[in-house]
């Protein structure tokens, strides 16, 4: 099964983050001192470290409202551009860096969604915890590829087909609609509901393993 091979052997970063799985190696790092004060001074090296540290956090927040990969990437670029521009507003006494950056990411994601005149994400999707801190994703860090595939196999076959077209082949919603002859609105809804159900399955899978306490 091609999609099985994709999950087991290929780069699955996009689908992992869409499902709320952030590998430990990519979680936001803890630093001895905040990066944003250095970014505010125009330190490009600090900005690169900021992107490396908080990129997964920003990407996960963006993907909860923007499901088109190209749009999500562009939104992330805009978010980090704004972080570079307003880093001097960060106050370590008022909030953590992850909170400050997460707020910018959420606000810009909503603005982008409105600008593109997109339908709002399903309320169920918004209810999922965003990756505002490393602790919020601990429950899914220990999943390996075979476990991920075992959980995903419980999804309907038509949902797995859409996942394959979107995450494996990189097709946009419009391209999936053209290839499958399914209305684009239905494609978007099925993908969103599929991600919600997949997330639920993964949580249940970890609960059975005794990972979630």
| Mean pLDDT across every amino acid position | 76
Strand content range = under 5%
Which stretches are low in confidence, meaning pLDDT under 50 for 5 or more residues running?
24-30, 118-142
Shape: globular
Write down how many β-strands occur, each being a DSSP E stretch of 2 or more residues: 0
Count of helical regions: 11
Run of helices and strands? HHHHHHHHHHH
Describe the protein.
It is built from 11 helices and no strands. The chain is mostly helical and 213 residues long. The longest helix has 26 residues, at 184-209. It is globular. Residues 24-30 and 118-142 have low confidence and may be disordered.
């Amino acid at each position: 099964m091609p999609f099985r091979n994709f999950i087991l052997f290929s780069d699955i970063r996009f689908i992992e983050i869409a499902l709320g799985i952030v590998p430990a190696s990519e979680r936001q790092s803890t630093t001895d001192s905040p990066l944003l004060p250095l970014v505010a001074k125009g330190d490009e090296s600090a900005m690169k470290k900021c992107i490396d540290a908080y990129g997964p956090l920003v990407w996960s927040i963006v993907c909860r409202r923007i499901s088109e990969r190209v749009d999500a990437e562009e939104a992330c670029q805009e978010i980090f551009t704004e972080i570079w521009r307003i880093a001097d507003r960060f106050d370590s006494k008022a909030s953590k860096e992850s909170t400050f950056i997460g707020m910018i990411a959420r606000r810009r994601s909503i603005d982008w969604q409105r600008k593109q005149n997109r339908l709002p994400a399903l309320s169920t999707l918004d209810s999922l915890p965003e990756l505002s801190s490393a602790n919020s994703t601990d429950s899914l860090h220990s999943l390996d590829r075979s476990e991920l595939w075992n959980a995903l196999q419980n999804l309907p076959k038509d949902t797995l087909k859409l996942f394959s077209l979107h995450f494996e082949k990189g097709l946009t919603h419009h391209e999936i609609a053209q290839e499958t002859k399914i209305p684009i609105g239905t494609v978007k809804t099925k993908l969103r509901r599929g991600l919600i159900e997949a997330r639920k399955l993964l949580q249940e899978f970890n609960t059975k393993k005794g990972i979630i306490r």
